[in-house]
Amino acid sequence: MTKSSLEPMLQAPADGHALDADLRSARRVLHLEAEGLRALADDLGRPFVAAVEVLEKVSGRVIVSGMGKSGHVARKIAATLASTGTPAFFVHPGEASHGDLGMITDHDAIVALSNSGETVELADLVQFAKRFAIPLIAITCQGDSALAQAASVALVFPASDEACPMGLAPTTSTTVMLALGDALAVTLLERKGFSADDFQVLHPGGQLGSRLLKVSDIMHGGDRMPLIDGAAPMTDAIIEMSSKSLGCVGVTAAAGGLRGIITDGDLRRHMGDGMLRQTAAEVMTPGSKTIRPGALASEAVRVMNADAITSLFVVEDDRPVGIVHIHDCLRAGVA
User: Are 139 and 155 in contact (CB under 8 A)?
Assistant: First the structure.
């Protein structure tokens, strides 16, 4: 349905009774699922910590599996684990019985999801885990189920009413399982000291990748930096500035530290002052804005916007190690 076809529906007066009934239904769903999450948070205890300890010690991968709606949740949990520093992937229980058990090694751990704990399709996966002493973590609502009893650690979440009025469609239960998977992933992330730098390595594309880019990832370094000694004549400074095409040149001291910067604006301001007979230090603007190489590129954009400038020298231990231009940030998707 397009936006134009939707607008008449949004603008037309709604039947009051239907509107109230729809909102009551939606709010009931959200309240029931929120109650399920609150019950889960209150019920967490030693089994959760034991599960985290099992997953932290895994030298291989975490295999996440489930059938039906639990399988959809399992896929998301595997993706979240993998993106936060815990190698993981989803194995379909039906496919596992037809050869995909070969994807699982004795260095791995298995997380199996089943609301009832009696999902027939998980049987071969459970037997495989027992046969090769592979740690098995169960996420289920039934502590006395076959899955929970076979597991190394059973994460049994409290029973809550499904949001479906018939109590049949997995709704609250799948929300709770998904949240429990998020809790495992984030707790592991914090235990391992997984940093924003680590996150950027695993998320190089899209908006997340651009938000986590560092200045050092996009700066111009080495011979690409426009630099000139403060004692050099302005003729040399202009040549250096023009050849690097970044609209400025950094002025350095004899010891190599950054003293200041000469921009297009500085050239215009000194044009009538016998500029070509002056040294770079006499024309420069001292104490230019700088940034550290480990800063996020988004911070560089903020500084440049705040000071209405287009370039920042990147400095480490008072020495220039690079330069970043606003166009570099824009090309990388940082805004």
Answer: yes
pTM above 0.70, yes or no: no
Backbone angles phi, psi at 67, to 5 degrees: -115, 145
pLDDT of residue 6: 54
Per-residue pLDDT of 164-215, as tens digits, reads 887 778 899 999 999 999 999 999 999 888 766 666 556 555 555 556 788 9
Q: What structural domains does the chain harbor?
A: 21-194 (3.40.50.10490), 215-331 (3.10.580.10)
Residues 6+ apart with CB under 8 A from 294: 214, 215, 216
